[in-house]
Design goal:
This is Cupin domain-containing protein. The chain has 382 residues and is an alpha+beta fold. It contains nine helices and 15 strands. The mean pLDDT is 95.
């Protein structure tokens, strides 16, 4: 699956994080990758994040999953919308929707949320803090897009939804199956289903807030500091007013803080670990039994392909010919011999490794570790 008649360079230059873009059916042969009944089934499962939004515009109510199967038979004819998060973690055909967007760095990818709505269903006018590609899977949806919003934008009072109080659309489009709308962060938008069986796939890209970065990095550094590493002023001199915090004291304390936070190499390792943490920490994808090194060697020698867990997050940071590989909150220091394999694992979802890797101890150890933590697996078909 790929995007046709789509210039990545033009998109990045003219639209990415700048303005919305409507893209009419850019696929060779669009087909909806998920049946509505399968989506409803996922919403009934424990451990899968879902929401059911019911009621007319202005009176929306939200129920969080897992939902009882009988709930869908109780909805009647009033508008409703089902939202299921991270469907790409569970449905390979939905995960495949991410592949055409690999021109965006993989560490920015969040997940694929899937929505199903009946006629008139929607979540109301809102704005998000992330980039999103909205792909129409089934049916038709009317999208209205407004101006860029921020924290000063008035919102309606609602316990569960951030609804814009005074939404004024600047663009108005109807999307058919296969059509796609890109919405940058902050832009107001409102999607309403036109008819029943309306399915939309939302490919979201995350961005850390400055507050999250400062809080996470500071806490990480603080955890490793010694109790005796404290402010000291052995050169203290008498000051005219004991109530004053002197500039000299402030300079010394500010320097203490900035020195503790300024280690870029340490920050790089921390951010790789932090950014690769699984979206759902409680999910356990590990196999029942660890794989033996000789089994890894045998499968590699046979040319067996390796597939990443769609729920796993992979990224790397170069260090000369070596690199740090980050997978699901773990760091693997890869030397020059294993770095090409690590890079390949980060770039594609399925890898056909060179059988010669069966004799490379570093590669075998890396593959074993990733399989044991549930981030990688040999293809069952092989």
């Amino acid at each position: 699956m790929h995007l046709k008649n789509f210039s990545v360079d033009d998109f990045l230059h003219d639209f990415w994080q700048k303005r919305p873009l409507l893209i009419r059916n850019p696929w060779d042969n669009w087909h909806n990758p998920l049946d509505p009944d399968e989506l409803a089934g996922l919403a009934c499962e424990e451990g899968i994040e879902s929401r059911l939004i019911t009621g007319p515009a202005g009176k929306l109510t939200v129920e969080s999953g897992p939902l009882p199967e009988a709930r869908f038979g109780e909805l009647g004819t009033s508008p409703w919308t089902l939202l299921v998060q991270a469907v790409d973690h569970h449905v390979p055909d939905v995960a495949a929707l991410i592949e055409p967007f690999r021109f965006i760095p993989g560490w920015r990818i969040d997940d694929v949320m899937v929505s199903y709505a009946t006629d008139g269903g929607g979540v109301g006018p809102h704005y998000d803090q992330y980039d999103v590609f909205l792909i129409q899977g089934l049916g038709r949806r009317r999208w209205r897009v407004g101006p860029r919003c921020d924290a000063s934008t008035p919102l309606l009072p609602h316990d569960d939804l951030r609804l814009i109080a005074d939404f004024n659309a600047e663009e108005d489009w109807i999307l058919e199956p296969g059509d796609m709308l890109y919405v940058p962060p902050g832009f107001a938008h409102d999607g309403v289903a036109l008819g029943d069986d309306c399915m939309t796939y939302s490919i979201g890209f995350r961005a850390s807030s400055r507050a999250d970065l400062v809080e996470g990095w500071s806490a990480h550094q603080a955890d490793g500091m010694m109790e005796e590493d404290r402010y000291a002023d052995p050169d203290l001199i008498l000051q005219s007013n004991p109530g004053e915090i002197s500039n000299a004291a402030l300079d010394r304390m500010h320097a203490m803080v900035m020195e503790a936070l300024s280690d870029r190499d340490a920050f790089a390792r921390w951010f790789g670990l932090h950014n690769s943490l699984p979206k759902y920490a409680d999910a356990d994808w590990r196999p029942q039994e660890p794989i033996a090194p000789d089994e890894v060697q045998a499968l590699l020698a046979q040319g067996a392909a390796l597939s990443r867990n769609p729920a796993s997050r992979y990224a790397f940071i170069r260090q000369g010919p070596s690199l740090m590989l980050f997978v699901d909150g773990h760091c693997f220091d890869c030397g020059e011999d294993t770095a090409p394999l690590a890079e390949r694992l980060c770039s594609v979802s399925t890898v056909a490794p060179d059988p010669k890797l069966a004799q490379a101890a570093g590669a075998v150890a890396l593959i074993k570790a990733l399989i044991d933590q549930g981030s990688l697996a040999f293809d069952e078909e092989d």
